[in-house]
From TrEMBL, chain A:
Primary location group: membrane
CDD domains, A to Z: TM_PBP1_transp_AraH_like
Recorded superkingdom: Bacteria
Gene Ontology cellular-component annotations: plasma membrane
One function term, GO molecular function aspect: transmembrane transporter activity
Transmembrane segments: 49-68, 75-92, 104-134, 173-197, 218-238, 244-266, 273-292, 298-317
Protein name: ABC transporter permease
Subcellular location: Cell membrane
InterPro entries: ABC_transp_permease (IPR001851)
Entry keyword set: Cell membrane, Membrane, Transmembrane, Transmembrane helix
Automatic annotation (TrEMBL), chain B:
CDD domains: PBP1_ABC_sugar_binding-like (cd01536)
Localisation: Cell envelope
Keywords: Signal
Protein name (record): Carbohydrate-binding protein
SUPFAM superfamilies assigned: Periplasmic binding protein-like I
Record-linked Pfam families: Peripla_BP_4
InterPro entries: Peripla_BP_I, SBP_2_dom, TAT_signal
Positions of the Periplasmic binding protein domain: 80-318
Annotated family: Belongs to the bacterial solute-binding protein 2 family.
GO molecular function, one term: carbohydrate binding
Recorded GO CC terms: cell envelope
């Protein structure tokens, strides 16, 4: 009887999870289809490839999701990623600095970009869409002006960031896991996390309730900038090269797609880190599976576009997560 | 009861900020205009410049749309230096890989009568009318990377030839090292004319010369990040992949890293990676004796010289002023050539 009740409870739990995150069911079907059609999708090597590719996406998607939940947006992450990677590569390669200094340099640059976004959007009340769109172009221009030529040859020490393994798991995946856990814990267990939802639902009401409605989104802008720069440093480490014009080009749309697919409402006030994880895994699996199937490039683009529309529909139909 | 920060508090500071910003931008613009005036490289200064005649060409406009590519910065630097030797100033556009922006910028130049325009059309057919207007206005029009019906001259590259050189070299290696067997993945581009020609040259030459090698994938990739993720996925299905050929060196470099990250030694004798462009990271990998074995390379200095010399030759009334910039295949034994290319890219 006890076993039966436990089984029912587990079954109910699974159903609830699927109802709260319909993308979970879609992801499961996608994985099944790719495994059946390719025969190699679930191979350990391929899963490792998906995980490492998705890691940088997850590192940026988590803070960006929190920012979107609070009612803001950051479209400059692609350019910040490029600048972060270039600064880290330049410090490690041409300046022969230690990997720690190189990464810290990148993080400082990311924090600076995030702080500019935060001041303009949170304290001066300018439109986050316009400000971060402008910063997307401005930061890219700055990166191309300062680093007009490709950088490469960053040394074995810096390669550790993207190429080493911690307890058998690739370092970028470990970093992404830490970011996911930190993001989920922040939302679930801290007052500031609950304030993020409150600000996103109704900024005026949150302010009247005594919540610091500028400080939290400002901090999230800074953290998003730092995360984008960290992702850039990881990519530079993995590739042992960085190019100002092309690094992270279009990344802002990919990461926003993952966030929205994960059920985070663009209007703010709703979303979860688990949903974002699903969005990231969905995009990573989709691209990997289509490559395994040798699907032509334009069909792949179409499939990714359709996925976004489907994700938006799922988010619309599914229940809203406000915790 | 406290006031909302979104009603009154932020308004004055926002207005102040916007006022300061407008002032700063205006001051900066005036400063920049003032600084650039003596050099004569501003578009405004070009207004009223007479149509080019032999010997009096003092300005050349270089319209290279792919500003995100490292080659852009190199070309601008080398072309500016080459122009300066002839007492010519070089103007540039910022098209950001947009055909619409390119059309707008070219129309502006024609309206302002920039005496000589060297343009790499993103869509050749769409640029024909602008080129005709330029010629009708008495300007020099040099087409970069192809030919138009209306033009003074052209600077030609055979992108097909670059692909063919790489494909044939890889096929020869496969025949000699793998006995004509093995697996290859192509990292291709079908979005622009240049990419399609390079892809066709590379794929056709390889499959013709090494018919026994199994083509396991043709994936769209022009940047290292995409090259890395696509090659990783291909390797999951075909871990015994032998060759990766890229439409760009950047994409091929991503493939090179993917192979290494899945356990392939950098000097593995049974692996071949090759690309096109002569990009610095790829040239360094070739120089170091890795399995990145070839790049179909254009010398930036040759292109930069052509950007200046061809309009000058047209202005001087020379017959057949156009040039064909050579593409050469660079391999591990071409050390002097690699050093020269790296120096030009530095």
């Amino acid at each position: 009887m006890t076993t039966l009740t436990a089984a029912r409870a587990m079954s109910y739990g699974r159903l609830t999870a699927v109802r709260r995150h319909p993308l979970l069911a879609v992801l499961a079907v996608l994985v099944l289809v790719f495994q059946v059609t390719t025969g190699s999708f679930l191979d350990a090597g391929n899963l490792r490839g998906i995980a490492t590719d998705a890691a940088t996406l997850a590192i940026v998607a988590v803070p960006l999701a929190l920012l979107v939940i609070s009612g803001y947006l950051d479209l400059s992450v692609g350019s910040t990623l490029a600048l972060g990677g270039l600064v880290a590569g330049w410090l490690a390669g041409e300046q022969h600095q230690s990997p720690v200094v190189a990464v810290l340099g990148a993080l400082a640059v990311g924090a600076a970009v995030g702080a500019v976004n935060g001041v303009l959007c949170c304290y001066l009340g300018l439109s986050a869409f316009i400000v971060t769109l402008g910063m997307l172009t401005a930061v890219r221009g700055l990166a191309q002006q300062v680093f007009p030529l490709p950088l490469s040859g960053f040394g074995a020490g810096f390669a550790w960031l993207g190429g080493s393994r911690i307890a058998g798991v690739d370092a970028p995946v470990v970093i992404a896991a830490l970011v996911l856990v930190a993001g989920a814990s922040f939302l679930a267990f801290t007052p500031a996390g609950r304030h993020v939802f409150a600000i996103g639902v109704n900024r005026e009401a949150a302010h009247l309730s005594g919540i610091a409605v500028r400080r939290a989104p400002f901090a999230l802008f800074v953290v998003t900038g730092v995360a984008a720069a960290l992702a850039g440093a990881i990519k530079a480490s993995v590739l042992d090269s960085a190019v100002a014009g092309t690094s992270g080009a279009g990344f802002e749309l990919t990461v926003l797609t993952a966030v929205l697919l994960g059920g985070v409402a663009l209007s703010g006030g709703s979303g979860s880190v688990f949903g974002v994880l699903l969005g990231v895994l969905f995009l990573g699996s989709l691209q990997n599976g289509l490559t395994l199937l040798n699907v032509p490039a334009f069909w792949q683009q179409m499939a990714q576009g359709v996925a976004l529309v489907a994700g938006a529909a799922l988010a619309f139909l599914g229940p809203r997560t406000t915790r | 009861m406290s006031r909302s920060p979104y009603a009154l508090d932020s308004t004055p500071s926002r207005r102040r900020f916007l006022a300061w910003s407008a002032g700063a931008v205006a001051t900066g613009a005036i400063g920049v205009a003032g600084c650039s005036a003596p050099g004569g490289a501003s578009t405004a200064e070009a207004a009223g410049t007479p149509s080019a005649k032999a010997g009096d060409l003092r300005q050349i406009g270089l319209d290279y749309p792919f500003t995100q590519l490292p080659l852009y910065a190199t070309l601008v630097k080398l072309s500016t230096a080459a122009a300066k030797k002839h007492g010519v100033s070089l103007l540039t556009t910022s098209d950001a890989s947009s055909a619409d922006t390119q059309a707008t910028n070219l129309t502006t130049w024609v309206t302002r009568k920039i005496p000589a325009i060297v343009s790499f059309p993103m869509v050749f057919e769409a640029t024909e009318a602008t080129a005709k207007r330029a010629l009708d206005a008495g300007l020099i029009w040099v087409t970069y990377g192809g030919s138009l019906e209306h033009q003074s001259a052209d600077i030609q590259f055979s992108f097909l030839e670059g692909g063919r050189l790489l494909g044939e070299a890889a096929a020869k290696w496969a025949e000699e090292t793998l006995g004509g067997k093995g697996k290859i993945a192509f990292l291709t581009d079908s979005t622009i004319q240049l990419g399609r020609e390079r892809t066709k040259g590379m794929v056709d030459a390889f499959t013709k010369a090494a018919p026994g090698v199994d083509v396991v994938a043709q994936e769209q990739a022009i940047d290292p990040d995409t090259g890395l993720s696509k090659t990783k996925a291909i390797l999951a299905k075909h871990p015994d992949l032998n060759l990766v050929l890229g439409v760009t060196d950047a994409a091929a470099y991503g493939g090179f890293k993917a192979l290494q990250q899945t356990g392939r030694k950098a000097t593995d004798a049974k692996t071949f990676v090759g690309g096109q462009d002569g990009a610095a990271p790829s040239l360094l990998a070739i120089q170091q004796g890795t399995f990145y074995r070839a790049s179909a390379a254009l010398a930036p200095q040759d292109i930069a010289n052509a950007i200046v010399d061809v309009p000058l030759a047209v202005a001087a009334g020379k017959a057949n002023p156009g040039v064909q910039v050579p593409i050469t295949l660079v391999g591990p034994t071409d050390t002097a050539r690699i050093d020269a290319l790296l120096a030009q890219n530095s």
